[in-house]
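A.,

Following up on our hallway conversation. Structure tokens first:
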């Protein structure tokens, strides 16, 4: 009977309250029928109640498994596969929430747009595996350097974003520059040398009067302005055997 009752569950699941109401109606109906025939619940009715409770346990486990699977799929959709931090979809959702909070409560915040200078040279010179290793280290610096309420994500090949909100523009800018310095100081062992890279950073305050797209575009422009200002003598890729191991 448990198997038969499980077929009553909708294919997309139901909530625990709905399931409890369904079981209660089934039990009540069977008990009323039993009471009408014998004057009170007997062994058959007690057995039915036990079977219903077993059904509730099995159905609850099925729902829990389904909810866990949905949560896992949602996490995959919002996570960058290579680095494990948020992807573009997650960034857009977080930025929308941050701007909505700014409009409702007047809170401040900042977006930081990071771009790795000359990243293509890493792939071309040392292989895509080396480039992937570098991207993962950059992601680790950003993930470990933000607060729980902040967001760090990768939105393109070598483009990363950080949303700090709520935060004062001055304080957030200082933290973003600290993260930039940490990335610039990265020294990653690869083969018989060390890899390093510099970054360009665009910092833009969250303006509740602007859309998410306008905010990102403004941060992107600031990032490219900084990139153009980088001295040509500054190496984009540092692979110097003299760095200490």
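Then the amino acids I'd put at each of the 245 positions:
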């Amino acid at each position: 009977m448990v198997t038969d009752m499980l077929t009553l569950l909708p294919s997309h699941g139901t909530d625990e309250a709905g399931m409890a109401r369904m079981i209660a109606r089934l039990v009540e109906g069977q008990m009323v029928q039993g009471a009408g025939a014998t004057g009170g619940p007997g062994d058959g009715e007690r057995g039915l109640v036990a079977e219903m409770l077993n059904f509730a346990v099995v159905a609850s486990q099925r729902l829990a498994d389904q909810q866990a699977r949905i949560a896992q799929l949602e996490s995959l959709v919002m996570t960058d596969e290579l680095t494990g931090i948020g992807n573009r979809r997650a960034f857009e959702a977080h930025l929308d929430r941050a701007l909505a909070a700014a409009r409702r409560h007047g809170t401040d915040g900042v977006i930081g747009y990071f771009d790795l200078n000359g990243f293509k040279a890493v792939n071309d010179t040392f292989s895509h595996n080396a480039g992937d290793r570098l991207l993962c280290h950059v992601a680790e610096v950003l993930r470990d350097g933000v607060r729980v309420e902040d967001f760090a994500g990768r939105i393109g090949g070598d483009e990363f974003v950080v949303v700090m909100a709520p935060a004062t523009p001055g304080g957030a800018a200082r933290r973003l520059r600290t993260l930039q310095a940490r990335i610039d100081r990265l020294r990653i062992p690869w083969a018989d040398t060390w890899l390093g890279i510099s970054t360009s950073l665009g910092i833009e305050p969250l303006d509740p009067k602007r859309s998410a797209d306008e905010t990102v575009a403004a941060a992107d422009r600031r990032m490219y302005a900084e990139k153009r200002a980088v001295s040509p003598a500054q190496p984009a890729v540092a692979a110097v055997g003299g760095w200490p191991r």
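The chain has eight helices and seven strands. Curious whether your intuition agrees with the design.

B.
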